[in-house]
Write a structure and sequence with these properties.
Helix content: 25-40%
Strand order of the largest sheet: 1-2-10-7-8-9
Largest sheet: 6 strands, mixed
Distance between the termini: 21 Å
Shape: globular
Strand content: 5-15%
Number of strands: 10
Structural class: alpha/beta
Length: about 400
């Protein structure tokens, strides 16, 4: 049956976004686990730098820094952040006739997620502005559902700071356990809307202020403020975006698909790539209960489940942690005008797609497109919640049933 152009486009975007939503939490299938780490360069993001420079040899060839006799040694764990591989997932690409590419952000070497870039740039920017001093007793406070806190905790240890992390109590226990092992102070608080002063982000801001005002405590309290701090999207504008452009040779890309929590990744990548690749479609994949789908589609923050009073949680109505939000952030707004479309992805679809990707390495897309998404972090930090639920989902045998379920 031949589909009309509009239906084909909407199906393509829907499939692509479903792929992203599933793969964000399904890290670990064979091709990814076996992919070697690339050499990395230190990501020190300056606001006046448009893109990292390639190293060139005297003959004009790109220099990979590994020729005989030249050491290739990184400076601490910070040197293992950035320049992550862009994977061509062979089985999916061959089966669909598409180029399905994935930015392996879980190979960042500090906290093992895309938030390593953000945490490092927040700290670097604060140091340049004189707001943080290593080994002075300064403590970095942040409200996070996990990954940013893990990245901050690891980099704080390496850079001579303490970390205090406030997080909702309904997040997977693996995250708080890891934070504690990294030496961070962890405050788990009841989930609450942003208007509540005890909401996890607001509490982190309060704790930073209390620290600074306490004369008995050494150093100052610094609120990282990942949702509003422009160092977030700038890390992706100066790092992730240029890397994708360089790794694909500046060729045509059809779509970049990502979820959004703070909005820094999708905004920063879009701001870099769109001026260079005007035909690129940037698509937001949003879970139930999040207002970002309506923000992109209709310019308002509203979700029907708020009206119905059926939400399971205070933040978003989804098992997929760290994605979706019900307020406008400075990081999302920085690049919102470049986001072309948004689609809903349900928990059932995300879990079924995660099982499919993990067990079969297969997905269906319209042929002859190049789609890029982001592999944010490892599935090991989602075992007790998302994967506990996904394990009960029968392995899918029909992708059409996943992507276009019966009403």
């Amino acid at each position: 049956m031949v589909m009309d152009t509009l239906h084909r486009r909407r199906l393509y975007l829907y499939l692509a976004a479903s792929f992203a939503a599933g793969i964000l939490t399904a890290i670990g299938f064979r091709e990814i686990l076996s992919f070697p780490r690339s050499s990395r360069s230190h990501v020190h993001v300056a606001t006046d730098r448009a893109a990292p420079k390639s190293h060139r040899s005297s003959e004009g060839e790109e220099d990979d820094g590994e020729e005989e006799g030249r050491p290739d040694i990184k400076e601490g764990i910070e040197g293992c952040i950035g320049d992550t591989p862009l994977l061509r997932i062979k089985s999916l690409s061959d089966a669909t006739g598409c180029e399905i590419l994935a930015k392996a952000e879980f190979l960042n070497g500090a906290g093992g997620s895309t938030k390593d870039r953000v945490a490092l740039n927040i700290i670097n920017t604060a140091e340049r502005q004189g707001l943080l001093t290593p080994h002075s007793g300064d403590t970095i406070y942040e409200g996070t559902v996990g990954s940013t806190g893990i990245s901050l905790a690891a980099i704080c240890r390496a850079r001579g700071y303490l970390a205090h992390i406030c997080m909702p109590s309904d997040q997977s226990t693996e995250k708080s356990d890891l934070l504690l092992k990294l030496g961070a102070e962890v405050e788990r608080v009841l989930p609450a809307p942003i208007a509540d002063r005890n909401q996890f982000v607001n509490l982190a801001r309060l704790r930073a202020s209390e620290h600074t005002l306490d004369p008995a405590r050494p150093g100052v309290g610094f609120f990282a403020d990942q949702f509003e701090n422009h160092a977030n999207w700038l890390a992706h504008y100066h790092g992730t975006g240029p890397e994708i452009y360089r790794q694909t040779g500046g060729r045509r890309l059809d779509a970049f698909v990502a979820g959004a929590g703070t909005g820094g990744t999708i905004s920063g990548v879009a701001l870099f790539l769109k001026p260079r690749l005007p035909a690129l479609r940037v698509v937001l994949a949003d879970p139930a209960g999040s207002g970002l789908y309506n923000r992109i589609r209709f310019g308002v923050m509203f979700d029907p489940v708020e009206r119905d009073g059926t939400r399971r949680r205070h933040q978003v109505d989804s098992l997929v942690e760290g994605i979706g939000i019900n307020r406008v952030t400075a990081n999302l707004e920085a690049g919102r005008h470049l986001i072309d479309d948004a689609v809903r992805v349900s928990d059932a679809q995300a879990m079924a797609m995660a099982r499919w990707l993990a067990e079969k390495d297969g997905i269906f897309l319209g042929p002859a497109h190049t789609v890029i998404t982001v592999l944010c972090d490892s599935g090991t930090r989602h075992l007790s919640k998302f994967w506990a639920a996904a394990a009960a989902v029968p392995p899918p045998v029909d992708l059409a049933a996943i992507l276009d379920p019966p009403a």
